[in-house]
UniProtKB/TrEMBL annotation:
The lineage of its organism: Bacteria, Bacillati, Bacillota, Bacilli, Bacillales. Residues 1-19 form the signal peptide. It is found in: Cell inner membrane; Periplasm. Transmembrane segments: none annotated. This is ABC transporter substrate-binding protein. It comes from Halobacillus mangrovi.
C-alpha cells in the first residue's frame, strides 16, 4: 500500500504520521463503509499492529474490496481523539488513555489485549541514582501525563517509597516527551529517570546512556496489566458487530503469528519502526525488549479496574472510576 508520510512522529517530535490519510466514507459507527483505518504506535508492545499491516491480515478477514488504511500515533491522547472523531475505527493503545477517556464519557470498548509487560524504569548515567529512594529532587520523563507508563511509575514510587511528583505536591519533577528521544535527553542530562516502553528501554541500554533502575516485573502492574489494548467505539460494536469481529479476528491472527514466528515478527518490527520513526533498531535491542513482553489478546477487566483505581488515587481521574462496560470479550471468546 502506498503510504504518504506527513512528518516523522517520534524523532522530529511533530505531527503523527498518517498512512493513506483519513478513512473516506467511514462514519463513527462504521455503517456503509468500504474503507477503515487502524491505528497503533511504533512500540514493541504494538507489534500485532505491525504484523497485521505487513501481512495484510485485515484485508483477509474483512469483506472483499474493503480498503484498509493505517495511522501511527505518538501518544494515547492523539489516538483516542482520532477514535472518538471517527478518523480511525480501532487499533492498539495503552490502557491508561483508554480508561481515562472511558471514565470521561467516551463511548468505547476494549475488545482485546495486545500485550503485557514492557515498561522499564531507566536511570541516566551520572545522575547519582542507585535506587528509587534517590529520586527525591530528580526529574523523570514519561510519554504523557496520566499515561500507562506514567501511572505505573508514580504508583510504584508512592506505594513502595513514599515519593511523589510535583503534580501531586511531591519532590520529583515531571516532564513529558516521546520515548524515542529519551536516549538523547539522557545524553544531554536534561532528565534523570525515564519510564520507558520497549523497545526504547533496550535502545538506551545498548547505547550506554542509562541503566535499568527497575525492570518490568517490579514496576507496578508490570506483568498483569495489558501494555496495549485493542479499542473500538461502542457505536461500531452495536451497529456493525460483524466488522468488529473481522477486525478482532485479524488482530488475533497477528498475535498468534507473533507467538508462533517470533523471529519473523521481530524483523517486521525492526522494519516498521524504521519506516515510522526513521530509527533502525538492532536485532540485539529487539531481542532484549522481546524478553520483557508477553503477546496475548486475552484481557481481564479486573486488571484494568485495579490500574484505574491507582490512577484515581494519584489524582489523574477526578472521580473514582467504574469500568463496568469498558471490556467486551465476546469477540475473542
Amino acid at each position: 500500500m502506498k503510504k504518504i508520510f506527513y512528518g516523522m512522529v517520534i524523532l522530529a517530535m511533530s505531527l503523527f504520521l498518517s498512512a493513506c490519510g483519513e478513512s473516506a466514507g467511514a462514519d463513527s459507527n462504521g455503517e456503509g463503509t468500504d474503507e477503515i483505518t487502524i491505528g497503533y504506535f511504533p512500540n514493541i508492545n504494538h507489534v500485532a499492529g505491525m504484523v497485521a499491516e505487513e501481512k495484510e491480515m485485515y484485508s483477509e478477514t474483512l469483506p472483499d474490496g474493503t480498503k484498509v488504511n493505517y495511522q501511527y500515533f505518538p501518544d494515547g491522547s492523539a489516538f483516542m481523539t482520532a477514535l472518538e472523531t471517527g478518523d480511525i475505527q480501532g487499533g492498539l493503545v495503552g490502557p491508561g488513555p483508554a480508561m481515562n477517556h472511558f471514565t470521561s464519557g467516551a463511548k468505547i470498548n476494549v475488545v482485546a489485549a495486545g500485550s503485557t509487560g514492557g515498561t522499564v524504569i531507566m536511570a541516566r548515567n551520572g545522575a547519582n541514582i542507585e535506587s528509587p529512594e534517590d529520586m527525591a529532587g530528580k526529574t523523570f520523563i514519561s510519554p504523557r501525563v496520566g499515561c500507562t507508563h506514567d501511572v505505573q511509575f508514580e504508583t510504584m514510587m508512592k506505594e513502595e517509597y513514599g515519593i511523589t511528583s510535583d503534580r501531586i505536591d511531591g519532590k520529583m519533577k515531571h516532564v513529558t516527551g516521546k520515548p524515542a528521544t529519551y536516549a538523547s535527553l539522557f545524553e544531554t542530562g536534561k532528565v534523570d529517570v525515564a519510564t520507558v516502553p520497549e523497545p526504547w528501554a533496550s535502545s538506551i541500554e545498548a547505547e550506554g546512556n542509562g541503566e535499568v533502575l527497575v525492570d518490568t516485573p517490579n514496576v507496578a502492574y508490570g506483568e498483569t496489566l495489558p501494555a496495549a489494548v485493542f479499542v473500538t467505539s461502542q457505536d461500531l460494536v452495536k451497529n456493525n458487530p460483524d466488522m468488529v469481529q473481522n477486525i478482532v479476528d485479524a488482530h488475533k491472527q497477528a498475535t498468534e503469528f507473533i507467538q508462533e514466528n517470533p523471529e519473523e515478527a521481530k524483523q517486521i518490527a525492526i522494519k516498521k519502526i524504521k519506516d515510522i520513526t526513521d530509527q533502525e533498531l538492532s536485532k540485539e535491542v529487539i531481542d532484549n525488549a522481546w524478553e520483557r513482553i508477553d503477546f496475548t489478546y486475552d484481557v481481564e477487566e479486573k486488571h484494568l479496574q485495579d490500574f484505574a483505581n491507582s490512577s484515581y488515587d494519584l489524582g489523574f481521574l477526578k472521580e473514582k472510576p467504574d469500568l463496568t462496560g469498558l471490556v467486551d470479550k465476546s469477540f475473542i471468546e
